[in-house]
# Entry
Amino acid sequence: MKLLNKTAIITGASSGIGAAAAHLFASEGARLVLAARREARLDDLCHQIRDRGGDAVYLAGDVGDRAFHDRLVAKAIGTFGSVDIAFNNAGTLGQGGPLLDMAADDWRDVLSTNLDSAFHAAQFQIPAMKTAGGGSLIFTSSFVGHTIGLPGMSAYAASKAGLIGLAQVLAVEHGPDAIRVNTLLPGGTRTEMFSGAPGAEDYIASLHALKRMAEPIEIARAALFLASEDSSFVTGSAMLVDGGNSISKA
# Structure
């Protein structure tokens, strides 16, 4: 079991990649502290994990709220004694649209959820990992803003690109503390975030060399690699799990 006796915080855990990662990490022995806004879904997810012999608790809240990260870390330490892994996965697409038409508040909301939240998370998670003797810190970035610029997604792209730079600096600053910091860059994934727009899935699938979107579990497996000792010499990386999106022009 790759995460036996490790405590992992997972944000954005109520659905999609976060929920898939919660099930997978639990099956690999991790003790989980799950976070998202939707409390009923978190409660149901924790019950599912416990019914299968896993160990999970949750805290509902907004990752854009600095105090929420303090409470998450406190809950992890109070319940399980440590923080060894943090998969900071929560994010939002935002309203979208051309930059010149974007309201400042819409820009700020995306940056708060996707990038400011990582700053807040790191400031509470890293000291806990130092106390534990090391750890793995993971941020969910995106191919958007890294290898591709999609129209109408300036705020999303800026926030996700910012995570890559943040992770690189944190990896250098805290490598001596045995803390690895990486970003995970999924391609288009079948989650609620990408549902509902007619034709959107076919278009997104067409951007990938594999001509399909990922299932959440496929991205969760990559997160498991970064969380586990399988990636013990990987830090500061921007790990593409994008179905060939970054190299596909067809």
In short: The beta strands are 7-11, 31-36, 55-60, 85-88, 135-140, 179-186, 238-241. Residues 104-132 form the longest helix (29 residues).
